[in-house]
Amino acid sequence: MSEQTRVIIFIFIALVVFLVWSKYFSPPPPANKPQHPQTAQTAHAPEKLTAPHSKPVAVPAIEASAEKTVVVSSNEYQVKISNRGAVAKSWKLQKYLNQDKPPQPLDLVHADSAAEMGWPLSLILQNSQDEQKVNTALYEIEPATGELKTPAQVTFRWSDGHLAVTKTLKFGSNYQVSMDISVTKDGEPVPVAIAWRGGFGDASVDSWAAHVNAFYNQTGDIELKSYKKLGVSGNQSQPQETAGPMQFAGVEDQFFAAAFLPENQSLSLWDWTQYYNVTTGSKPVSMPIASAAAGSDTAEALHVRLFVGPKDIAVLRGVHPSLSGLINFGWTSIIAKPLLYALQWTQKYIPNWGWAIVVLTLLINLPLFPLRLMSQKSMRKMQKLAPEMRAIQDRYKKYSMRDPRRRKMQEEIMEMYQKHGVNPIPIGACLPMLIQLPIWWALDRVLEMSIELRHAPWIWWIHDLSIKDPYYVVPIAMGFAMYLSTAMTPQATGMDPAQQKMMKWMPIFMAVLFINLSSGLNLYILTSSLVGAGQQVYLNRTQPMPVAKGRFKKKKTA
């Protein structure tokens, strides 16, 4: 057989063998397998739902080799941030100075307490161990370390292979910083909040820590929480959550604020108090440190703005939403705000705030002169009626004060006043004082809360009109001027001796009462009293009181 025939026979036998084997000797076909779950779900559900028990997602480890710092500066502030924890080690306000000699830009971060209790821009996580890691880790910085000018963006990244953090800070104008923060663990998002820890505000103020409050705006009204009300009841060091949404929340002192503002998401507040032990001289003192944090209780990246700056009305109004409510004059607002605007207007032309207060006092007291004139005229009429009133009093002096017939004396005196058109109550004399009282209260609030008056000098030893006179010269001079003005003012005829004595000693009581109040307020009252004394000198010369006649006529001699 030819070679071709042999090949054909071999192929035929091979086919017969394959068909017979396939029919009688091959294994049974496998059962139909169900479609793979991932194939069926990938197009219809998020990846995290397709494999609820999937293995942890591998995250590359990111960590810097050494601690570094980056400084961001603007005309308004300078912030120094360390890559250890990506926290703020310094937050200075360029336009506001501390009490050092020579003065330096005020730092709102307190390094001593923050080193022990945590720094601003640190994070809060549900797991305390994870929180410790992210707040002490060495982050990589982009761009590299150095000093940047606003507008600037700095990104911090860190990961240990399971826990990963990205914190991006965008520094702009108007004392604001935009922050984008994301934390994941094994690829899954983790809820996060950003905190201002370690103390806040002007440490040169006496008992500064006790004057720091947490605040939040949830319903349109700002709620303040002192350090005594922060944290969980019975354990103030444990953060207490006030669920959002918040318009803003943060911490504040007398003149400055750090406010967290949400960016298109709900914002909640966490607040707590810790105590920092310091030594004053040889005596240990425990200082309360108020801390606050803002975040969302959902496991999404946190987008929030942070305002750190002065409680200046113009600056606070420039923030959205407006933070102007942080300047709260209370019930005196109706007087305090116009008073502040008038003082600001006066200061434009008189740069010294002390002399601006003096000029404003003169402007306020000039319209009160007609009331003094009215009072003087009323006093003159009463002096002319003094003999007739004494005659009525002499007829009833034999009756005791409890005798019902004493009422008849009062009725006769009132009829006499009505007959001659005299008001027995010297309203003209009382009104200047009554008008000044709310102004005093309002000015005290203005001096206490208006940052324009912080460290505002007047003359010589008065270096800060918002605090008391260190040598008490102004309040003592104020008391003397009030006494002088009172002594020169004629007393109403028939005034009770006890009332006369009270009027005589009132200036001394006022000086004692006001001795620890702001020197600016005492300066206002001093100027007002001197103006009142000057007006009274003029009235005594132009509107003299009639000479009182003797009660008894001199007997004729034979």
Structure description:
There is one protein chain. By secondary structure, this protein is an alpha+beta fold. The chain has 2 domains: 69-328, Beta-galactosidase, Chain A, domain 5; 339-385 and 422-542, no CATH class. 36% of the residues lie in helices and 23% in strands. It contains 15 helices and 20 strands. The strands form 3 sheets. Strands 6, 8, 9, 10, 11, 13, 14, 16, 17 and 20 form a 10-stranded antiparallel beta sheet that branches. A 5-stranded mixed beta sheet has the order 4-3-2-1-7, with no helix packed on it. The chain has a 5-stranded antiparallel beta sheet with strand order 5-12-19-18-15. Strand 8 and strand 9 form a beta hairpin. Helix 7 packs across helix 12 (427-449) and helix 10 packs antiparallel against helix 11 (406-420). The longest helix is centred in the C-terminal third of the chain and has 24 residues, at 519-542. The protein is elongated, with a radius of gyration of 40 Å. Residues 1-12, 29-53 and 550-558 have low confidence and may be disordered.
What general form does the structure show? elongated
**Separation, N- and C-terminal Cα atoms:** 197 Å
CATH architecture verdict of the largest domain: Distorted Sandwich
What percentage of amino acids are in beta strands?
A: 15-25%
Tally of helical runs: 15
Q: What's the total count of β strands? A: 20
* The CATH topology of the largest domain: Beta-galactosidase, Chain A, domain 5
* Assembly classification: single chain
> Main sheet?
10 strands, antiparallel
Sheet/helix structural class: alpha+beta
Q: Gyration radius, to the nearest Å?
A: 40 Å
Residue stretches low in confidence (pLDDT < 50, at least 5 long) are 1-12, 29-53, 550-558
